[in-house]
Amino acid sequence: MRRYLPLLLVCLLAAAATAASSARSPWWWIAAGPLLASACLGGWDLLQRRRSVLRNHPLVGRLRYPSEPVRVRPASGGAREPFGGDRDVDEYLVPSLRPVEPAEEPPRVRVGGPDCSQPYDMALLNVSAMSFGALSSRAVLALNRGAALGRFAQDTGEGGLSEHHLRGGGDLVWEIGTGYFGCRDADGGFDAREFADKAALPEVRCVSLKLSQGAAPGSGGTLPGVKVSAEIARERKVPVGETVMSPPCHRVFSTARELVLFLARLRELAGGKPTGFKLCVGSRREFLAVCAAMVAEGLTPDFVVVDGSEGGTGAGPAGFAGHLGMPLTEGLITVHNALLGVGLRDRVRIGASGRIATGSDIVTRLAQGADYTNAARAMMRAVGCVGALRCHTGTCPSGVATQDPLRVRALNVADQARRVRRYQWETVRDAVRIMAAMGVREPAELTPGHLVRRTRPGACRSYAELYEWLAPGELLAGPPQTWEADWKAADPDGFG
């Protein structure tokens, strides 16, 4: 309740000044007038429902608005920028002298390989993995309703499939982490029956197995005890108020071959819905081991989500983010090349996640090998996050990343859902316009040659020249020297 003390103090001072002006001297109205106006403004802050920060921090919350224009926020696809750009251009997309008209309907990507009986048409931009627990119930619901309004998907994060994910009517990618929350047995292992029951829900359109995430690869997820409410504890089958540490690796497989077989089992249990996995790429050799297992078993996931090491998390180990794992560019190109090299790229869709916020970000990742993108940080901004960096403390001022009921109640679900939908729609529309300016209508038409980087003053090279790109099936036919050692060491019965 300390956040209401400034308003209470102003009200007390206003009352005292008003009493003094009546009993002692009318000159006290000089102080009473502004104090009364401030008290009324604070009361309005408490009652209004559009700005959650003001509801949680009346009067004081207004101090952030003068600095809001310089904060990093998701760019509107319909925005106009006067007087040109203000950044140094070290990387740019290549426009065409024969641009085309933008597509009236944004393109979608069919996710589902030959073993998938219920394929899903994925939007170019979706909500990345954020769990109920890391986010509040109202934030999760607002994101889901926004996804329903805009016909895009929401990744549940590894915290389980909560009622708040299911109430809004949006399409879901159910993420299963190393803690198996939502399909967890009494010993903390995988419960196949519970998984099958929940995967059959119509809201669940895809299933994603989380191997690692960009902000904390190799460490498992963390949910601070201050955010483990009774509801979260029931959902995850963990003690109330205790920090939840997901194991660093899965218990149900220990080799690349077992991973591929487990993914096939998940797809079968899910009734043929698209099933894939998410990872932050570390060793190229290890990912090639997974590809070798796909070739050996004749089985593929329907998608792979590549998370860049520049990605964020609400509570990750200090020193992990940005230091462990490949950045998104290198991770994407590695996964795309590996799948292409073993002749399986046409069966597997690639999603990209990690600091994606604008239409140009989407187009850049598509040119680097992705089929679609996911955003977390930008979606949090759209739902009301003000970047207070208190995600791990339970004191988020906007009610987005907290389980404090008083803070959560300030978040207006209907209003924030419309903001999420509008942000996604305008950002994808911006991406479609950029592609049209490049002479491209479909994401599959984008190539590494459409993206150029300045390597030194006076020298620019396209991504087609900067990176090595394998031909379909080249690893099987005879790998180039630069890939030969890793491919030979890629053991499907290990991880390289």
Automatic annotation (TrEMBL):
Q: Which SUPFAM superfamilies match?
A: FMN-linked oxidoreductases
Point out the signal peptide segment: 1-19
- Keyword Signal belongs to the record: yes
CDD domains attached here?
A: GltS_FMN
Q: Which InterPro entries is this protein grouped with?
A: Aldolase_TIM, GltB, Glu_synthdom
Pinpoint the Glutamate synthase domain residues. 125-440
What's this protein's family per the entry? Belongs to the glutamate synthase family.
The protein depicted here goes by the name: Glutamate synthase domain-containing protein 2
